[in-house]
Amino acid sequence: MKTMVDRTVLVTGAAKRLGREIALHFANQGWNVIIHYGQSAQEAEAVLDEIRALGVEAIAVQANLAYQKEAESLILKSIDHFSRIDCLINSAAIFEYDRPSQTDHPVSADLIERHTQINLAAPIILAQAMFRHLKTQPINKDFVPATIQLLDQKLINLNPDYFSYTLSKSALLTATEMMARDFAPYMRSVGLAPGITLPSGDQSQSEFEKAHQVTPMGFSSSAHDIASAAFFLANAKSITGTTLYVDGGQHLLASDRDVMFKIK
């Protein structure tokens, strides 16, 4: 059942895929929702309509997270509307293939920079702006706001595929732990690492289903699993500076290639 609460979540990349599922899950629990989107205005409006139909308040805010001023403006606009953000979930990310040994998809400074800007710098800038606001507010020991960074199970089981993406997420994992120390006791910093959850790139449905089964449990994470885990972390006031792996144990299986290339 939906429980109406006076809490607000900001989800980046909430117009599509995991971000959308997370936003809808929080809305179903009665949270107000800020839907961030980059270029997917039509999809964002659709999610906005779905959430408002649930009887909770929501807004959609466009921002290009490659630019610091727009990322900071996203926080300011959200606070201006709802007065407070209780949870920031960084779902927006880019995921492009490169690998140093591949002549047709080599690593480049440009690709590293783009992954770093969206997948690393933007989440940190957003968390920093949220912290600055919370530091002016009274501390509530019964509920401590949180930033939740969507990471990746492959950070435990490294392979060189998607090299720039993996570098950016590895750095974000370290940043998550550092921010937990820096932002306490006003705000928590937590990582959430999915396994293979939704089809990516040119992956067929059949290939995705096969890859999804390559775990000790025989299945990896679903979008609902990730959304439920995010909601748990948002309310778990004692959890900070650590990462929850939700992947059916996928990170326990050593692999020299990304699972997308092993299932063809």
How far apart are the first and last residues' alpha carbons, in Å? Answer: 41 Å
CATH homologous superfamily heading: NAD(P)-binding Rossmann-like Domain
Q: What does the average pLDDT come to?
A: 90
Order of helices and strands: EHEHEHEHEHEHHEH
Structural class: alpha/beta
Strand order of the largest sheet: 3-2-1-4-5-6-7
- Ranges where pLDDT stays below 50 over 5 or more residues in a row are none
- Name of the level-1 CATH class: Alpha Beta
Q: Which fold name corresponds to the CATH topology? A: Rossmann fold
**How many β strands by DSSP?**
7
Helical content stands at 40-55%
Rg value: 18 Å
Largest sheet report: 7 strands, parallel
Counting DSSP H or I runs of 4 or more residues, the number of helices is: 8
What is the CATH architecture assignment? Answer: 3-Layer(aba) Sandwich
Q: How much of the residues is beta strand, in percent?
A: 5-15%
- Anisotropy-based shape: globular
Number of domains: 1
List the helices and strands and how they pair.
Layout: E1 8-12, H1 17-28, E2 32-37, H2 41-53, E3 58-62, H3 68-82, E4 87-90, H4 109-134, E5 146-150, H5 163-183, E6 188-194, H6 205-212, H7 223-235, E7 243-246, H8 259-262
Parallel strand pairs: 1-2, 1-4, 2-3, 4-5, 5-6, 6-7
